[in-house]
């Protein structure tokens, strides 16, 4: 049979034939997560340098785009020029002073926690007439604000928390990828090879 079902079956056969790729991805994700949990400070430093590389590369590409669009008829290309120069500058500053960037990232996590808490409190206040027990949302909001204040006092903890969240996600994603790999492997034997 040709058509959508035939091409779908062929695609499924190709995926199941390469089930081991999902297994390898899952194992790598779990190893990364375990390593990040075991060495959170090193992971945070690596994260900062990856950020520096990304910002600098993006700045260079934006700068190249600005130069290519530098014709007077192309509009306000100089905004792209400023953006590119700022991106390169931030990348260089991050490489030269990585702890400043780590501190700033920690502050951003703290600000996010406080903002989340305040919006939860505001939502609970608006919903107090319509939803019973909105006190739970208020408590969650207050806790978020308190955690945000704590993290703003100790921003290094905020950065480590970010590393731990990424590590937890990596381990969970790895487990799911491994489970998918074994499901695909079990379906491999039930599919007939493509002719």
Mind explaining what this structure looks like?
With 195 residues, this protein is mainly alpha-helical. The chain has one domain (21-188). 85% of the residues lie in helices and 0% in strands. The chain is built from seven helices and no strands. It has helices spanning 4-17, 19-38, 40-68, 78-96, 98-127, 135-153, 155-188. Helix 5 packs across helix 7. The longest helix is centred in the last third of the chain and has 34 residues, at 155-188. The protein is extended.
> What is the rounded distance between the termini?
11 Å
Radius of gyration: 24 Å
Give the topology string: H per helix, E per strand. HHHHHHH
Beta fraction = under 5%
Shape type: extended
Mean pLDDT: 80
Alpha-beta classification:
mainly alpha
What profile does the largest beta sheet have? none
User: What is the helix content?
Assistant: over 70%
The total strand number stands at 0
Low-confidence spans: none
Q: What's the tally of helices?
A: 7
* Number of domains as seen in the coordinates: 1
List the helices and strands and how they pair.
Layout: H1 4-17, H2 19-38, H3 40-68, H4 78-96, H5 98-127, H6 135-153, H7 155-188
Helix pairs in contact: 1-7, 2-3, 2-7, 3-4, 3-5, 3-7, 4-5, 5-6, 5-7, 6-7
Q: Key features?
A:
195 residues, extended
Summarize, please.
This protein has 7 helices and no strands. The chain has 195 residues and is mostly helical.
């Amino acid at each position: 049979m040709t058509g959508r079902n035939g091409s779908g079956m062929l695609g499924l056969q190709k995926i199941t034939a390469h089930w081991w790729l999902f297994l390898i991805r899952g194992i790598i994700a779990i190893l990364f997560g375990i390593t990040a949990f075991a060495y959170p400070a090193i992971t945070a430093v690596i994260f900062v340098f990856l950020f520096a590389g990304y910002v600098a590369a993006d700045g260079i590409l934006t700068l190249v785009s600005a130069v290519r669009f530098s014709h007077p008829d192309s509009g306000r290309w100089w905004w792209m020029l400023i953006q590119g120069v700022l991106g390169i500058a931030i990348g260089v500053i991050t490489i030269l002073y990585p702890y400043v960037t780590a501190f700033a990232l920690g502050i951003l996590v703290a600000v996010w926690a406080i903002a989340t808490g305040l919006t939860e409190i505001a939502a609970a206040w608006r919903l107090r007439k319509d939803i019973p027990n909105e006190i739970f949302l208020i408590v969650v909001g207050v806790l978020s604000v308190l955690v945000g204040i704590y993290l703003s006092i100790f921003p290094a903890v905020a950065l480590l928390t970010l590393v731990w969240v990424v590590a937890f996600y990596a381990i969970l994603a790895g487990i799911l990828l491994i489970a998918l790999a074994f499901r695909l492997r079990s379906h491999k034997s039930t599919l007939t090879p493509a002719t």
